[in-house]
Amino acid sequence: MRYTLRQIEYFVATAEAGSITLAAERIHVSPPSISAAISQLEAELGAQLFLRRHAQGLSLTRVGRELLVEAKQLLDQAQKLYQTASEASDTVAGTLSLGCLLTFAPMVLPAIAHSFTSAFPGAQVLPDVADHERLLHRLERAELDIALSYDLHLPDGFSFTPLAGLAPFAMLAETDPLAKLPEVTLEELAARDLILLDLPLSRDYFLSLFARAGLSPRVSARLQQMDVIRTMVANGFGYTIANIRPKSRHALDGRAVVRVPIAGDQQPLRLGLVRVARQEPTRLLRCFMEHCTREISDSHIPGMDAPPAATRPA
């Protein structure tokens, strides 16, 4: 047997992504390395696994589709070797596929992955970043072991371990008159231009804050990139509502933004761990969950400022 598990891993990643470029982004390997591995695997097996179409990416051949099923089982069995050894000893080792919600991933994901692998050198974290719906989809397909996300509209079959509450606040330009207030009301905000974070489920949460107060916000723009929203707010195009509290008080262009609490009892978002409930957690996964409960709380979230005591959710 002259093929390698690495070649099998690259083949599976490419088959699921539909292109070498997307596979490279997902598993953080250069496209030439993936292309070479697939070519070597095809030569070793004596079979063409992909049909290569210049403008349409890759599609599996009949042999490729059959091999994909076996390849996934092979990788599962290989991973179980680590799990078996870990369960039978005091070591914690293996690869953990960790998903993270894209809005807070830049702050939380690197810090929690680094602290976990520092505590358990035999463990490797394979990160993935997506919106909430895509994270749930990848958990269902067993492409992820666990994900850091919110408890927004979780279907049956998922378990959620809450870690921290994130109260909403208004983000304003430093020059905005409301930025000098100790708090701002939803009535004051509803009369102004709102730049809405337009991600699945997140937008429903932000709009529901106004709906519960019998108000309709004046949405002037809908964007999916928080960095762009912060920069537009800093330049006076409007305000936004957010829950994430990065340590930096500046947009990417260097202009400052100000966070002002929203008056009243506003529903916080709960950040926590999401996984498929029916799957028994491995020793590696249990250790990671315990690590997260130690590292993430209402008073401390890696990469973020702690919320003011008066606005922390109970």
How would you sum up this structure, described in words?
The chain is α/β, with parallel strands linked by helices. The protein has 10 helices and 12 strands. The protein has helices at residues 5-17, 20-27, 31-45, 62-88, 105-119, 132-140, 186-190, 202-212, 226-234, 283-295, and strands spanning 50-53, 57-60, 94-101, 123-130, 146-150, 158-166, 169-173, 193-197, 218-223, 240-242, 257-261, 269-276. Strands 4-3-5-12-6 form a 5-stranded mixed β-sheet. The chain has a 3-stranded antiparallel β-sheet with strand order 10-7-11. Helix 1 (5-17) packs across helix 2 (20-27) and helix 1 (5-17) packs across helix 3. The radius of gyration is 23 Å and the shape is elongated.
The rounded Rg comes to 23 Å
Note the run of SSEs as H and E.
HHHEEHEHEHEEEHEHEHEEEH
Mean pLDDT: 89
Q: Biggest β-sheet, characterized?
A: 5 strands, mixed
Structural class of the secondary elements?
alpha/beta
- The percent range for strand residues is 15-25%
**Outline, from the CA principal axes?**
elongated
Summarize the amount of helix as a percent range.
25-40%
Would you count the extended β strands for me? 12
Strand order of the largest sheet: 4-3-5-12-6
Ends distance = 58 Å
Count helical runs: 10
Unreliable runs, pLDDT <50, ≥5 residues?
A: 310-314
Question: What labels describe this entry?
Answer:
314 residues, alpha/beta, 40% helix, elongated
